[in-house]
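Chapter review: from sequence to fold.
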Amino acid sequence: MLTNKHIEKSTMDTLFYDGHCPICSAEIHRLQKKLDTNLNCVDIHQAEVSLIEKERLFSQLHLRRADGTWLVGLEANVAAWQHTRWRSFANILLWPGVRWVAELSYQL
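The token string follows.
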């Protein structure tokens, strides 16, 4: 997994997204309109990380919590939306049964 040594430590959660992907950019644009102040959204193309780390970040959505732990894929997406007033609805995606469908949809 990615290390913190190449990514500036923060007191905020950090969501890494592909700013060149139209779908990703549209989702981040919607998310940023609703965010509280505890989530930093970083375009991977602008992140100061190694090429190997960038490749990992491009593979799926990644969120680094302020405590340094990493969430990937659907869990990263849900964690990002927990920084909005829609946090309760986002958590539904992690319910058993619903999660299976959400994971499948996320992968597509």
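Two observations follow directly from the output. The chain has one domain: 13-107. Confidence is low (pLDDT under 50) at residues 1-7.
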